[in-house]
Amino acid sequence: MASSSSVLFEDQLQCSICLDVFTDPVSTPCGHNFCMVCLRTCWDNSSLCQCPVCKEKFHQRPELRVNTFISALAAQFKKSVQIEPTSSPTTVISEVLCDICCGLRGVAIKSCLICKASYCETHLEPHHRVSSFKSHHLMNPVENLANYICQKHEKPLELFCRDDQTCVCQFCTEGDHRTHTTVPIETESEQRKIKLRMTNMEVQQMIQNRLKKIEEIRESVEDSKKNTEKEKADSMEVFSSLLRCIERSRAELLQVLEEKQKAAERQAEEFIKDLEQEITELKRRDTELDHLSHTEDHIHLLQMYPSRSSPPHTRDWTNITINTHLSVETLKRALTQLQESLNMEMEELAKIELKRIQQCAVDVTLDPDTAHPDLILSADGKQVRYGDTQQNLPDNPARFECSPCVLGKEGFSSGRFYYEVQVKGKVKWALGLAGETSPRKGMIICSPEEGYWSICKKKNNEYEALDSPSESLSLKQTPSKVGVFVDYEEGLVSFYDVEARAHIYSFTGQSFTGRLYPYLSPCASVGKTSAPLCIITVEP
Prior knowledge:
Layout: H1 7-12, E1 25-27, E2 33-35, H2 36-44, H3 68-81, E3 110-112, E4 117-119, H4 121-129, H5 131-134, E5 138-139, E6 159-161, E7 166-168, E8 182-184, H6 185-293, H7 298-308, H8 329-357, E9 375-377, E10 383-386, E11 406-407, E12 416-422, E13 429-435, E14 452-458, E15 462-465, E16 471-473, E17 481-487, E18 492-497, E19 502-507, E20 516-521, E21 533-536
Antiparallel strand pairs: 1-2, 3-4, 3-5, 6-7, 6-8, 9-10, 10-21, 11-20, 12-17, 12-21, 13-14, 13-20, 14-15, 15-16, 17-18, 18-19
Helix pairs in contact: 2-6, 6-7
């Protein structure tokens, strides 16, 4: 074994293909060194002629010559670290027992392919001493010696047939393999080792590439997280600025309207005061005219008549009105357009979000062992409807007893998943998720506390999220398909109107334990016959 002082020296004399000390070292034009056989094999098995280390390509295959200087250093190193053969038990490769020992069998140190036996140190001695035994084929001890001997000729497998890709003995080359290309097993083994090392290098490179890709993905996620946080901050700032602007404009508009109202009130008070003054004057004139028309003093009447024969001078009030109207139609239109733009953007975001979560779609099949006896399932387990008569089904802990419900066969305890249900034509329905330990017997109260996360449609097109407390839902249109999305780790259950690409409702901040199952209830309908609830296959 090399000493610690020779480790660096050994690395410098190591072929990067076979990872062993150089044998017939050659140098490439780019300055890297390899075993001649290793480099030739590498080039023979590749369409490119390039350096295995730096990947520099060569337009013409370089002529390889042994680097005598490096060859001499490699030979000197091999000689300095060469281990002399020893019969010490510590050199035994495997715990194969001696076939000759009687009683307590010793550990074999060699196996003989000619004798077809394994020997301990004592019983191997004749193979080193007797001349007829010295020519025997010894190898490191193995238990399955038969695998190393030709079954047909009972001779050691010493050659490899490249045509049939099998090991043969010398006699095989004179028979069935006479015209085949054969090479010593050691030669083929060495070449296979080189190819294996090259494959090993490729595998290691593949591992590095994938580790690099993992790092890239993680960096991408981190960048995405940073971008998302920035987008959130920027969006919140925009919304905050918009809200401040709207609030300021609202306050200013209210102030303008109030000032306009106060001005109208002041003007009205002035008009009323003037009118009241004119009424007082007219009443006085009315009294004078009444007295004058009844007087017996004819001279006085004639004297007063010129000044009293016509009504007193007053203001013409015909076209005088109080201006109370302040036009805000332009402002209303601007706010309406802003609201429509925001709604359009939110709808577009909802479409993108729904398309993303649809990638988490799973195949859901309904479980007949959980179905209420009033429910009828299709043969493929994709549809459920309310039946006319109750079926006689065996009771079990998982079956719903009073509520017309059914669960999916598949349960989920981690990750994200999504499924869709067609609800078109249904007067009433409920769907969502049920926990593994949610109650099935008696009348069910659907709420997160009871292990149910669901929404429902009631009569008169009323929709409700069965939260704690229940919450009425205002939907723009009647859904025909409802999508259910779950993020187990985030504690999120969201419902979507698939056709409208709109979000319906979300349960957030939930703490899930155990498995979650898709939950459907077609509900009892008039005449107990209605359209079924159908599990839809979501196209990726």
